[in-house]
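Format notes (please read before filing issues)

Several people have asked whether sequences and structure tokens are stored in separate files. They are not. Every record keeps both together, in the order shown below: the sequence lines, then the token lines. Line labels are part of the format and must not be stripped during preprocessing.
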Amino acid sequence: MRAGSSPWFRAFHLGPRLALALIAAACAPITQAPHVDPELTKAEAEKQRLLVVERHIADLRRLNAIAFRVFAANADFCREKGKSAGAFGFKLGNAYSFPKDLEAGARRVVGGSGLVRIVAVDPGSPAERAGMREGDAVLALNGTPAPKGENDAATRDFGKLLAEQVRAGNPVVFRVQREKAEMEFALRPVATCDYGYGIDPKEIVNAFADGKSIYIARGMMQFAETDEELATVVGHELAHNLMGHI
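Then the structure lines:
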């Protein structure tokens, strides 16, 4: 019989190899997950939430500046369609008017008191010329206390009150709180198109109009690198609203 066919021979030659394999396995390093401080993890998560909110606000301010100018430039067209209104060149909101997933961070960045604040001011607008600033909390309009509350209804109610004051045809006196000081600004609106606008949080290159407002997706905000490109998108969606292409 050949040695290669003997069971004893095979065991004799495999035994040392198997022993070496077992010894090597026993000496192999054991990977352990590093210890992570839960407080540091929590702090980093909060930092990331704030960065997302700050990015959203930066996009909103950019869109506000462009939309205000496009709407003002097309006020005559909107008037022909019965869709003109007066505007001051600012964007209002509180922490609860942001998308739900940004609400916690917005309370840190914008403030969680429920006061309606100036989130964006368009360069060259009546609001900027009067001296209003981003972060001003509006306390009253022409002496009427401004709506407030820890919900998104406060911003909607504020918008209704502001529209009533604008229809009266007189300058609107805004009483605001800036840090610890209170001050007043009298603004007269300029003619613009009566449509809202905002940012859709989706990371897609798209924009749409629903007949009442214009929405620019976050992905489109990044894709439109220049203000001219973004203005083209806003003007395109404005035309959809004016022509009833819903």
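For reference, the curators noted about this record: The first helix runs from residue 7 to 27. Residues 5-14 have pLDDT under 50 and may be disordered.
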